[in-house]
Amino acid sequence: MKKIILLGYMGCGKSTIAKELSKKIEIPFIDLDEFIEKKVKMTIKTIFAEKGEIHFRKLEHECFVELLNFTNPIIIGLGGGTPCYANNHELLKGENVLSIYLKASIETLVDRLSLNKSNRPLIANKDDVEMKEFIATHLFERSYYYNQAQHIVTVDQKTIEQTVDDILEILA
Ligand SMILES: Nc1ncnc2c1ncn2[C@@H]1O[C@H](COP(=O)(O)OP(=O)(O)O)[C@@H](O)[C@H]1O
Ligand SMILES: O=C(O)C1=C[C@@H](OP(=O)(O)O)[C@@H](O)[C@H](O)C1
Ligand SMILES: [Mg+2]
Q1: What is the value of ipTM here, to two decimals?
Q2: Which pTM does this prediction carry?
């Protein structure tokens, strides 16, 4: 069984969808951010604040590789930036992985993230107008990496269940 990797911009639903998919297909789910937090016993917010983003990106790469080396089947929910650093985007194309980009529009992302930004250091201090500008530019810059995924599932206007069903079709 290939490892299932969910990727996409902050707020697209990687952590939420991975958890639901895990229940449905009874394959364990590991959220990369949570894996990093447990490993270094610090929150993502604290790692960014005290060690800086470059340090976080190195940790993120090491932990991603560690998860890819697990021998058992797993679902991995990446962080929004994971595919965009080190050679991580190349790892999305491996034979033993099935990578899925959860594609969300700027509007969907702004709606979801405006309610959920405090633990996301890249946007925590932005107001709604700044956030929309930031997401529009950042998503454009990152899309090249996200598009390296083997499959794309759009998530706009879909319930969690509908997105999970779309993924199940890919797995069938
Ligand atoms: N249809 C939906 N699919 C996924 N997440 C949704 C949906 N509707 C609302 N949300 C909310 O959007 C947020 C997505 O956050 P999260 O799963 O942490 O995304 P990510 O891990 O990609 O940053 C959660 O608060 C979730 O409850
Ligand atoms: O997009 C990013 O660079 C980041 C996304 C976050 O994960 P989520 O996409 O799960 O919010 C987390 O890894 C960190 O705050 C950096
Ligand atoms: Mg997440």
Answers
A1: 0.97
A2: 0.97
